Amino acid sequence: MMSSSAAIYVLSTLGGYAVTSFLLLKYPTLLHQRKKQRFLSKHISHRGGAGENLENTMTAFRHAVNMGTDMLELDCHITKDEQVVVSHDGNLKRSTGINVNISDLKYCVGTIGVGWMRIKELPPYLGKLEVTFQKGGLSEGEDKRIPLLKEVFEAFPHTPINIDIKVNNDLLIKKVSELVAQYKREHLTVWGNAKYEIVEKCHKENSDIPILFSLQRVLLILGLFYTGLLPFVPICEQFFEIPMPSIILKLKDPQSISKSQKFLIWLADWLLMRKALFDHLTARGIQVYVWVLNEEQEYKKAFDLGATGVMTDYPTKLKEFLHNYS
């Protein structure tokens, strides 16, 4: 049986830990130097705004930039002839109707005339594509070409770009790093993936480019947050990019979701969407991005919780919301 003196010691220790943890959670710069932010992004266009134009196309990117987006989010793969292209899918069945992998195709297979016209091996996008994060959403457009990453860099030299490295491929990571360095965009780029191994390779390849939290690291941050340890732990990443779990409910048929699944979604949303967590991270200079939100009530929930930015498929809708949001 624990003696009264031992109990007092344990309780005082736990009390001191709780008070210190709470204090540092509110004022993290007492222990950690605030990260220097090279840019701030509130309005982020997912795949360039996949609900208003065909995703990941130059037309989508131009429209989003013209709407005043703070950041373009896009996805990268590498072709057989080692060109970095902007595409969400590695297999093009969904987006082009042709069951072929980007990695098995060359970007160009030849030229006509004196180099005036390149013959593309990559197939064009379909004229209409479903919007992944909007039930019943459909986008269409005339620009069906899969662009090169360097085209995006050249067209938008002053726009921050969020790059999702879609496959664990050392050459892809190296090529993206070289392009970022070539266009002197280290201060305007963030990269990574949900997979821890990819983020680690990105950071090792070029530590001058800030990185996203992987899923593994997001879960670790949550564990540290709920045990009170987060304020004591140094953080390398600068961008906490997370989904809003509750949006799953609108994407699926309500009758297809069981009560247990609804409970798990509610629990995940409750655990992840925490203002105290967002405020702590932003106080340390870490930007918090919530994806992919396409409704005004979702935008409001994210910003009310203290999110730095929202990622959307509808740049126009988010712009209008931000104009009225206070």
UniProtKB/TrEMBL annotation:
CDD domains per the UniProt record, alphabetical: GDPD_GDE4 (cd08612)
Transmembrane regions listed in the UniProt entry: 6-25, 211-233
Coiled-coil features, chain-numbered ranges: none
Keywords: Hydrolase, Lipid metabolism, Membrane, Transmembrane, Transmembrane helix
Claim: Transmembrane is one of the keywords in the record: yes
Record's GO cellular component terms: endoplasmic reticulum; membrane; perinuclear region of cytoplasm
SUPFAM superfamilies: PLC-like phosphodiesterases
Key word 4Fe-4S present: no
InterPro entries, sorted: GDPD-Related, GP_PDE_dom, PLC-like_Pdiesterase_TIM-brl
Alphabetical GO biological process terms: N-acylethanolamine metabolic process; phospholipid metabolic process
Reactions mediated catalytically: 1-O-(1Z-octadecenyl)-sn-glycero-3-phospho-N-hexadecanoyl-ethanolamine + H2O = 1-O-(1Z-octadecenyl)-sn-glycero-3-phosphate + N-hexadecanoylethanolamine + H(+); N-(5Z,8Z,11Z,14Z-eicosatetraenoyl)-1-(9Z-octadecenoyl)-sn-glycero-3-phosphoethanolamine + H2O = N-(5Z,8Z,11Z,14Z-eicosatetraenoyl)-ethanolamine + 1-(9Z-octadecenoyl)-sn-glycero-3-phosphate + H(+); 1-O-hexadecyl-sn-glycero-3-phosphocholine + H2O = 1-O-hexadecyl-sn-glycero-3-phosphate + choline + H(+); N-hexadecanoyl-1-(9Z-octadecenoyl)-sn-glycero-3-phosphoethanolamine + H2O = N-hexadecanoylethanolamine + 1-(9Z-octadecenoyl)-sn-glycero-3-phosphate + H(+)
Chief location: membrane
Family statement: Belongs to the glycerophosphoryl diester phosphodiesterase family.
Name under which the protein is recorded: Glycerophosphodiester phosphodiesterase domain containing 1
Organism field: Monodelphis domestica
